[in-house]
Write a structure and sequence with these properties.
three-stranded mixed beta sheet; 49% helix; elongated
C-alpha cells in the first residue's frame, strides 16, 4: 500500500496581496502605532508583519515593555513610535511594500523611499526604487537619488550591483577619496555578513572607483592601506600610477579619469585626457 503523498499548492497571489493591502494603515486589529513627520500623522501597523519582513523593525519592536518600574522611560510595544524625519507618504510606501511586496511610487517621493529602503535594509524595495528612478526621472533627479544613498547610514546594506550602479555616476557630490573609504567600509561589513573575502565581495564596485583622480600622496597611502585587505586589485593601482607617470589617462578607461561633481581639484587633473580609450 502506497504511503500518503503531500504537496504544497499555490493559491492566487494577486488575491492574497489584495487582502493584505487592506491592512495597510488600518487601525482595525493593529497593535502598533507610528507618529510620522511634522504633520504627526498616525500610521497603524501589525507587529508580526513588520517583524517578519524587516530586521530593523524587528529590533525596534523587540524592546522591553516600557512603563515598567525598571524602565519608566521606555516605549511600550504598541508605541507610539515617533518618526519625525520622514514624510508620511514615504513611510506609508515602505509599509505598503512590507505588506504586499509591491510599492506605489511617484517622482515626488521616489528619492526618499529609496533612502528609507537603504536605511531599513530592504534590498528588494531598493531595487524597485532604482528601477523607477532610472526609467522615469531626469538626470538631475537621478543624481540626487545617488547622493542620498551614499550619505545614508544604511549604505552598508546595498548590494554590490546597486553600489556599482551608484558609483558609475559623474554627478555624485562626493570626493573620490571619500568614496574609496565608503566602499572599504561597505566591503568589510559585506565580507563579515556573507563570510566571503573582501576582494571577492567588492570586485564589482571597486571597478567603478576612479583612482587616477587621486593625488600621488593619496594613492601612496591607499596602496599602503590596501596591503591589509587587498580591497583593490594591484592592477588597478598600477594603472593609476601609470596615468600619473604618463601625465595622461592612457591605458585607463575614460570614465575612470572623469572628475565627478564632488571631486576636489588636484593639480594633475589638467593632464588627464577625458577622451582616452
Amino acid at each position: 500500500m502506497a504511503g500518503p503523498c503531500s504537496a504544497r499548492l499555490q493559491g492566487e497571489a494577486a488575491a492574497f496581496t489584495a487582502a493584505l493591502r487592506t491592512l495597510v494603515n488600518n487601525p482595525q486589529f493593529s497593535d502598533v502605532t507610528f507618529v510620522v513627520g511634522r504633520e504627526q500623522q498616525k500610521v497603524f501597523a501589525h507587529r508580526c508583519v513588520l517583524a517578519c519582513r524587516c530586521q530593523a523593525f524587528r529590533g525596534m519592536l523587540s524592546q522591553e515593555l516600557v512603563g515598567s518600574e525598571d524602565h519608566p522611560g521606555s516605549i511600550p510595544p504598541q508605541g507610539p513610535f515617533i518618526l519625525g524625519n520622514v514624510q508620511p507618504e514615504v513611510f506609508l510606501a515602505v509599509i505598503e511594500f512590507l505588506y504586499t511586496n509591491s510599492v506605489t511610487l511617484n517622482s515626488h517621493i521616489a528619492l526618499e523611499v529609496l533612502t528609507s529602503s537603504v536605511e531599513y535594509g530592504l534590498q528588494d524595495l531598493c531595487k524597485l526604487c532604482v528601477k523607477f528612478i532610472k526609467d522615469t526621472l531626469s538626470v538631475e533627479q537621478v543624481c540626487e537619488a545617488l547622493q542620498a544613498v551614499v550619505r545614508t547610514q544604511g549604505f552598508h546594506e546595498l548590494s554590490d550591483v546597486v553600489l556599482a550602479w551608484v558609483l558609475r555616476s559623474d554627478r555624485l557630490a562626493v570626493d573620490e577619496l571619500d568614496l574609496v573609504q565608503a566602499v572599504r567600509e561597505w566591503a568589510h561589513v559585506s565580507s563579515a555578513v556573507l563570510e566571503r573575502p573582501v576582494p571577492e565581495v567588492a570586485a564589482l564596485p571597486v571597478r567603478e572607483l576612479r583612482l587616477p583622480l587621486l593625488a600621488p600622496s593619496e594613492l601612496a597611502t591607499l596602496e599602503s592601506h590596501n596591503q591589509r585587505d587587498l580591497l583593490i586589485p594591484v592592477e588597478s593601482i598600477a594603472a593609476a600610477w601609470r596615468a600619473h607617470a604618463l601625465r595622461k589617462g592612457s591605458g585607463v578607461p575614460s570614465r575612470l579619469c572623469r572628475p565627478r561633481r564632488g571631486t576636489r581639484p588636484r593639480d594633475h587633473h589638467r593632464h588627464l585626457d577625458p577622451h582616452a580609450k
